[in-house]
Amino acid sequence: MWLVDVELDDARLEWVLRIEAARRRPYGAAFETQFDVQRCIAESGAVRVAQVIAVETSEDWFGRPFAVVERLPGRVVPDRPPFTFESWLRDATAAEQERCWWNVIEAMAALHRLDPRALRLHEVLGGGASDGATQSLAWFRELLDTTPGNRFRANAEVLWDLLAESQPEPHGPDALSWGDARLGNVVFADDLSAALIDFEEVTLAQPEADLARWLSYDDACSAGLGLPRLPGFPSHDETIERYGELLGRPVADLSWWKAYSRFCIEALRSSR
């Protein structure tokens, strides 16, 4: 990712240049798919995302496809070091931390309330009937079968046995799934409102997929490192209850979706 400043006549434009990573695309999607989705989300007005300026699938410029998107004003919480160790969010007040948490939760729920069919994205993302994670699991199974043995694949195989034996039934239509739902993929404006970025792993899934990834990331950056959660962050139980209210139905099968989240991460790492 490159930050680009452009001066055009009297205007100063701030963009982000994203060049395709040299690895397999999640779910075998075309490079431009994530940006097609991002455009539709932006047009809906339901969730704040970066405007897509241009997408180039030719490899003539950088040896790989690339896209130019709007650079959103605001701050991002860094991944390294982990935000629980050092970050502006760690240094914020408990009230500000709580606002950031709930603003992301509300943005994520707004994304899940969008109708992929109405946005003409159902076919773009390969959707059929609501299947929860069936198509995604099939893609990951093919990925693992063509990946050399390593510790990430070994971890994924253990989780595969659990997931394949106990996949839950969908509890409603599949939603647009952000994919990489974590703090590092959020831009917070001055008022702490949240914009979602990085839709490389976007797919169709039950809303619980993103919620599970979000909560699991929070655990990994706190208990997983022997560090306390940020004092202003609401509890996971409070978050799950609130998310059900935002969805209009109770959150279901979250333990399975947390295992699925861990499986996706390990499987993608195995191929890189």
Write the layout of secondary structure elements.
Blueprint: E1 2-8, E2 11-19, H1 33-44, E3 52-56, E4 66-70, E5 75-76, H2 88-91, H3 94-113, H4 134-145, H5 151-165, E6 175-177, E7 186-188, E8 194-196, E9 203-205, H6 208-221, H7 236-247, H8 254-270
Antiparallel strand pairs: 1-2, 2-4, 3-4, 5-7, 6-9, 7-8
Helix pairs in contact: 3-7, 5-8, 6-8
Protein model, in words:
The structure is a single chain. The protein is an alpha+beta fold and about 270 residues long. The chain has a single domain, classed as Alpha-Beta Complex (Aminoglycoside 3'-phosphotransferase, Chain: A, domain 2), CATH 3.90.1200. Helices cover about 40% and strands about 15% of the residues. The chain contains eight helices and nine strands. It has helices spanning about 35-45, 90, 95-115, 135-145, 150-165, 210-220, 235-245, 255-270; strands at about 1-10, 10-20, 50-55, 65-70, 75, 175, 185-190, 195, 205. It has a four-stranded antiparallel beta sheet with strand order 1-2-4-3, with helices on one face. Helix 3 packs parallel to helix 7 (about 235-245). The radius of gyration is 19 Å and the shape is globular. The two termini are about 20 Å apart.
What's the short version?
The chain is of the alpha+beta class and 272 residues long. The chain contains 8 helices and 9 strands.
Comma- or semicolon-separated keywords:
single chain, 272 residues, alpha+beta, 4-stranded antiparallel beta sheet
